[in-house]
Amino acid sequence: MSAPGYPSPHQGPGSYSTAPYPVPHGGYGDPNHAPPLVGFHMGYNHQQPQPGQPVMYQPVPMPEYGVPQMGPGYGGPMPGPEYGAPNSGPPAAISPAPAAVVPVGVPPGLEYLTQIHQILIHQKVELLEVFTGFETNNQYEIKNSLGQKIYKAKEENDCCTRNCCGALRSFDMKIKDNTDREVIRFIRPYRCASCCCPCCLQELEVQAPPGTTIGYVSQDWHPCVPEFSIKGANKETVMKLEGPCFACNCCGDVNFELTGKDGGKPIGRISKQWGGLIKEVFTDTDNFGIQFPMDLDVKMKAVLMGACFLIDFMFFEKD
């Protein structure tokens, strides 16, 4: 017995055509269809875009509520069926184009982070700083695993603070998307060095959008090992970050392992990548890779970005 057919809009009432071939479900960039993480391969520097590979773009601004969707090639709303047109069925039989789905609870501008499980952070080389030693505002490019820029970051600070306080300086770090819209802000207050005293531990606040706090990165005191707590908006600990005993990269990467709030098996990593002898000795420009679970809360992904910047200033920014 043959399978039942499907109504055809080009045939008369009661006519049926052969059932179409099944169409695969799911869309591009759906985290639920991404392959699971296998290990923690950190060879970011060798992952370059290949010809023919799909390009992942930042999400475009979503249409405002109440604004009708535009049909392709039309200057107005999607047209409906004419009154009295032949073969017109009831309204329930009409299949409109699916509307864009706005992720629930995702701050504006961070939608793209739901599609990825690793990012690269490259600090720009400042020629004035290289040749004169005069400390300038740090600037970074934030890229996906294909090397495509998704965000840019720039420190905002005054000359006196940068050159007098060095790596301990306070700062505001603004993160902007490719449309030059500020989507994240990192705020670090000034704190003294805390290698021997637990009273001046480092902390960084993460806001997305600017003005709305979504989490904190707090240093945990330990006499030998650098440890941090990744916290939510109410300062509840969500994850832990632990580095090596000596956070220095001598001809190799330095890894800070990400675990659950109670420790256990690593679920991600922040890695300071070895940039070569000349670059490491004569500049303080650094490359980092961040890896986290695909289904991690997008707000915590933004907080991990802040943890990367705090680690850079604390351990790899030359005074």
TrEMBL record:
GO terms for cellular component: plasma membrane. One of its GO terms (molecular function) is phospholipid scramblase activity. This is Phospholipid scramblase. Coiled coil: none annotated. Keywords: Calcium, Lipoprotein, Palmitate. It comes from the Eukaryota. Its cofactor is Ca(2+). Pfam families: Scramblase. InterPro entries: Scramblase, Tubby-like_C. May mediate accelerated ATP-independent bidirectional transbilayer migration of phospholipids upon binding calcium ions that results in a loss of phospholipid asymmetry in the plasma membrane.
